[in-house]
Design brief:
single chain, about 140 residues, alpha+beta, five-stranded antiparallel beta sheet, 5 strands
C-alpha cells in the first residue's frame, strides 16, 4: 500500500526543483520586460570555492543608472572558467530601476533555469508514473 509514497516523494522534489527554475526564469523575464538597458563594464571577478575544490568566477559589473548613481553589482551567475569577462570588458545589462542591485548581464547564465525546470519535470513525471503503477 505505501510502496507508492517513495516515488511520489520524487514527484514532490521535482515540483520544488521546477518551481525554483520557474521563479528564476520569471525574474529574468520581468527584467527583460520592465528593466532598463545600460552599458556596463566588468570591474573585477569575484572568485569563490564551490566547496568541491573548484573555483567559481562571478563578474562584478559597474554602470551608471539613469539617475546618475554609480553601481557595482556581482552577477548571481558564475562559471568555473573566466571566459569573456575579464576586467574592463564592456557588457550590456538590464537592471530594475527601483532596485538597481537586481541586474543581469544580457545573454549570460540563463540556462540554469531551463535545466532546473527540465529536471523538475523529469522527476515529477517519473515519480507520478511509478506511483500510479504501484498504487494499482
Amino acid at each position: 500500500m505505501s510502496g507508492w509514497l517513495f516515488p511520489l516523494g520524487f514527484a514532490v522534489v521535482g515540483a520544488v526543483v521546477f518551481t525554483i527554475g520557474f521563479v528564476g526564469f520569471w525574474r529574468i523575464f520581468a527584467l527583460r520586460r520592465d528593466g532598463v538597458r545600460a552599458a556596463g563594464w566588468v570591474v573585477r571577478l569575484e572568485t569563490t570555492s564551490s566547496g568541491q575544490g573548484d573555483r567559481i568566477h562571478r563578474p562584478v559589473v559597474g554602470w551608471v543608472t539613469g539617475d546618475g548613481r554609480r553601481m557595482e553589482v556581482e552577477s548571481p551567475y558564475g562559471r568555473s572558467w573566466v571566459g569573456r569577462f575579464k576586467p574592463g570588458t564592456p557588457v550590456r545589462i538590464r537592471y530594475d530601476p527601483r532596485r538597481p542591485e537586481r541586474m543581469r548581464i544580457e545573454g549570460y547564465g540563463h540556462g540554469a533555469q531551463w535545466a532546473f525546470m527540465l529536471v523538475g519535470i523529469g522527476f515529477m513525471a517519473g515519480g507520478i508514473s511509478v506511483a500510479a503503477r504501484l498504487a494499482m
